[in-house]
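Following up on my earlier message about zinc ion. Here are the inputs again, as you asked, copied directly from the submission form:
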Amino acid sequence: MTVNYIALAIPAFFLLIFVEMAVARQMRIQAYRLNDAITDLGCGIGQQVVGIFGKAAILGVYTAVFVNASLIGFAEGSWWPWVIAFFGLDAMYYWWHRASHEIAFMWAIHAVHHQSEDYNLAVALRQAWFSGLSSLPFYLPLAFLGVPPHVFATVGAFSTLYQFWIHTETVGKLGPIEWVLNTASHHRVHHGRNPRYLDRNYAATLIVWDRLFRSFQVEDERPLYGVIKPYASWNPVWANFDVWAELWKKARSAPRWTDKLRVWFASPGWTPPGVETPPPHDVESGPGFGTGPRRRWPSGSTYLRSSRSLRWRSWR
Ligand SMILES: [Zn+2]
Ligand SMILES: [Zn+2]
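Thanks, got it. Here's what our run produced:
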């Protein structure tokens, strides 16, 4: 029986969300919209419920592979499985995450996490319901390498916990830490829909994978958050099916059978020949989704100034 660290951390998540709200207010950043934050939390609650079954299935398959097919046996109390799990899981997360942005059916699962046009700690809780299923094949090599299920589950939970704090605009750049670790600045780029930010910075904990595999982008302009085709709803259930519906429509209208299949495995932006190409979206200025007027962005200089002052304070 493994401890559910994520569930235990829920009170801390809420506490930190309130702290972030106060800091953002002081920095004059409009970090939260109530409707958007409620949708984020709705996705997170749904994921916890669906995840009970998902996690059981994943750990079941993982354990079966570990028991029957692991190639290396480690002595009781050895640190090696922890070291292999930390680096191995982080590397495999990178490739799962990259595939989740580059292969259409995997994007259909993962897009949920990117639909919010705000960027705050609540977005970290906006988790896709079916991610566990798409990530399992990526993590099975760890079972072959002899990482016991409880080590895999614990390291995985701490990887998820690490990624909570990077969903905020209240933390600026962190000096040399930015070279090695995934930070708020790096992950803001990942959530940006600015053309230069699309499909960049896939890391979980170590940003070195992005540097190594040439998907790294430094935050050098203010990110506009969300997906290219806005998810025009606050419904946290449909959020998990919206892109599936879109792919289904594309597959149905493709005249060729091969293309009907290819739609699911091609790049998410691919349109089969004979299907009307959607009009190009103006990513820079919208369209945004929200109620009432678009949120006001602090000017670039205000943002950098406040980030700098915060960094200065944290370095003292
Ligand atoms: Zn992503
Ligand atoms: Zn994220």
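One observation from looking it over: The CA atoms of residues 50 and 129 lie 6 Å apart. Hope that helps, and feel free to reply on this thread.
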